[in-house]
């Protein structure tokens, strides 16, 4: 994947206005086309009530959306960017997904919203559903996400194979944004997988062995970054993953959080992972979600991929029970 066309979904909320600003900044960095998309809700109900005015009403809404989209960019942005404005009508989620295909977008940026205490664990349904299904990386940005420069990136890894594969893409992103990279992992108070306690770590000695082996994996990532010419440092904590990640982002003054979003089975697709949903909802900086299997590609990243494949990182097993299968920390 090369970042050639950045699609920004605009609903004219404050968050989506910040998304446009971020899209402008990234379009310049990656020398990519910038596509602003607004989806008009279907007006069939209005058409039934006022059938003779339907066309007039729809044209008025289209013209207003076009004017507002144009006003989001200054004259200098419109002059030096390869800019496209798209207005579609229909279901928001369906139209965004169709636009990704039609425009061959390689990245999507969407605004999200902070809700009150009773709702703060719930990501908007459109955003949540899109993040489960999008085939390309997606950046979510809230009303608090004002930073347009990313000198420090925090990458959350669960040390799985998928997350390790994404590390190559993260290195390429850090290279292009000229950013320092912090690789973060949190060991849960009771590490489990699919509700089953990981074997071999229910003792003090077993947990200490787990910590040491996780530290070894993180050290291997530091070395990979060094070989790639990227400044990488790692941070290991213990505690619930979402809370620990949000605290680490604030404590390190990271300006971008990157996470992988795994493909899920039929029974799991009904929900976005609780950690990812909490982070996307509550983060005060933009969050980049990388779909499992998506990779950045450039001459440099292809070299990085070859360097990463077959390294010793994947040979360091997490602790297991005696004779039990190897499992990863999630």
Kindly state the mean pLDDT as a whole number? 77
Number of separate strands = 12
- CATH fold group of the largest domain: Rossmann fold
Counted up, domains total 2
The main β sheet shows up as: 10 strands, mixed
Radius of gyration: 22 Å
- The top level CATH class name of the largest domain: Alpha Beta
Shape assignment = elongated
Query: For the largest beta sheet, what order do the strands appear in spatially?
Result: 3-2-1-4-5-12-11-6-7-10
Strand content: 15-25%
> Structural class per helix/strand content?
alpha/beta
Word description of this protein:
This protein has 330 residues and is of the alpha/beta class. It folds into two domains: 143 residues, HUPs (Rossmann fold, 3-Layer(aba) Sandwich); 182 residues, Rossmann fold (3-Layer(aba) Sandwich). Helix content is 42%, strand content 19%. The strands form two sheets. The chain has a ten-stranded mixed β-sheet, sandwiched between helices. A two-stranded antiparallel sheet has the order 8-9. The C terminus is likely disordered.
């Amino acid at each position: 994947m090369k970042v050639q066309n950045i699609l920004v979904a605009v609903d004219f909320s404050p968050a989506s206005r910040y998304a446009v600003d971020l899209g402008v900044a990234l379009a310049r960095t990656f020398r990519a086309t910038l596509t602003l998309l607004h989806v008009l809700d279907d007006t069939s109900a209005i058409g039934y009530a006022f059938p003779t005015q339907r066309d007039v009403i729809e044209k008025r809404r289209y013209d207003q959306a076009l004017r507002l989209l144009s006003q989001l960019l200054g004259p200098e942005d419109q002059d030096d960017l390869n800019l496209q404005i798209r207005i579609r009508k229909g279901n928001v989620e369906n139209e965004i997904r169709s636009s990704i295909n039609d425009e061959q977008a390689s990245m999507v940026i969407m605004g999200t919203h902070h809700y009150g205490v009773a709702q703060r664990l719930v990501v908007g349904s459109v955003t949540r559903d899109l993040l489960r299904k999008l085939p390309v990386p997606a950046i979510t940005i809230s009303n608090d996400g004002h930073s347009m420069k990313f000198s420090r990136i925090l990458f959350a890894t669960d040390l799985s194979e998928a997350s390790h594969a994404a590390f190559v893409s993260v290195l390429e992103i850090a290279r292009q944004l000229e950013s320092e990279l912090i690789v973060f992992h949190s060991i849960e108070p009771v590490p489990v997988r699919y509700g089953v306690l990981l074997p071999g770590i229910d003792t003090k000695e077993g947990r200490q062995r787990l910590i040491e082996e996780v530290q070894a994996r993180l050290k291997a990532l530091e070395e990979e970054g060094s070989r790639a010419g990227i400044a990488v440092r790692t941070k290991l904590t213990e505690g619930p993953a979402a809370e620990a990640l949000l605290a680490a982002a604030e404590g390190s003054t990271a300006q971008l959080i990157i996470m992988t979003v795994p493909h899920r089975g039929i029974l799991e697709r009904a929900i976005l992972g609780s950690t990812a949903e909490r982070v996307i909802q509550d983060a005060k900086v933009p969050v980049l979600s990388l779909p499992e299997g998506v990779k950045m590609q450039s001459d440099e990243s292809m070299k990085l991929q070859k360097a990463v494949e077959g390294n010793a990182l994947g040979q360091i097993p997490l602790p297991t029970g005696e004779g039990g299968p190897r499992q990863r920390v999630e």
